[in-house]
Amino acid sequence: MLTIASEVEVLARFGRALADPIRCRLLLALREAPAHPSDLAERLGISRTRLSNHLACLRDCGLVVAVPVGRRTRYELADDRLGHALDDLRAAVVAVEGERACAGPAGVASPRLRAE
């Protein structure tokens, strides 16, 4: 059983992963299906280097895993429940405050993310 401090750390890691729009898009893409980095970079329209940095963050947060497939690596969500959690979280946030923009660190409203 997790202690309160452990539960807070787990939620903070999840929040850190969701704090960046590219990481959100990556998680949503991997929710649909596992993918190789080249496919993810093309789908998201970002460089492989930038993608690699975001995948490393998601791995460090424990949300995605790298699976060797021959000479290539495929990425997938670390647990199927994460896909359900993303769906539930998105639905809850939209239901509660779908029209509000969240203020960033300096009180500046962050751009709204479109659902993919």
Model description:
Pfam families: HTH_5 (PF01022). InterPro entries: ArsR-like_HTH, HTH_ArsR_DNA-bd_dom, HTH_Metal-responsive_Reg, WH-like_DNA-bd_sf, WH_DNA-bd_sf. GO terms for molecular function: cadmium ion sensor activity; DNA binding; DNA-binding transcription factor activity; lead ion binding. Residues 112-116 have low confidence and may be disordered. This protein has five helices and two strands. It has a single domain, classed as Winged helix-like DNA-binding domain superfamily/Winged helix DNA-binding domain (Arc Repressor Mutant, subunit A, Orthogonal Bundle), CATH 1.10.10.10. The protein has 116 residues and is mainly alpha-helical. It starts with a helix and ends in a 19-residue tail after the last helix. A two-stranded antiparallel ribbon has the order 1-2. A hairpin with a 2-residue loop joins strand 1 and strand 2 (72-77). It has helices at 4-18, 21-32, 37-44, 48-60, 80-97, and strands spanning 64-69, 72-77. Helix 2 packs across helix 5. The longest helix is centred in the last third of the chain and has 18 residues, at 80-97.
Q: Categorize the overall geometry.
A: globular
Unreliable spans: 112-116
Q: CATH homologous superfamily name?
A: Winged helix-like DNA-binding domain superfamily/Winged helix DNA-binding domain
CATH architecture heading: Orthogonal Bundle
Distance between the termini: 35 Å
Give the biggest sheet: 2 strands, antiparallel
Count of discrete alpha- or pi-helical segments spanning 4 or more residues: 5
- Could you state the order of secondary-structure elements as H and E? HHHHEEH
Given helix and strand content, the structural type is: mainly alpha
- The residue-averaged pLDDT reads 86
Q: CATH fold name, please?
A: Arc Repressor Mutant, subunit A
What proportion strand? 5-15%
The CATH C-level name is Mainly Alpha
Strand order, sheet with most strands: 1-2
**How helical, in percent, are the residues?**
55-70%
User: Mind telling me the C-alpha Rg?
Assistant: 15 Å
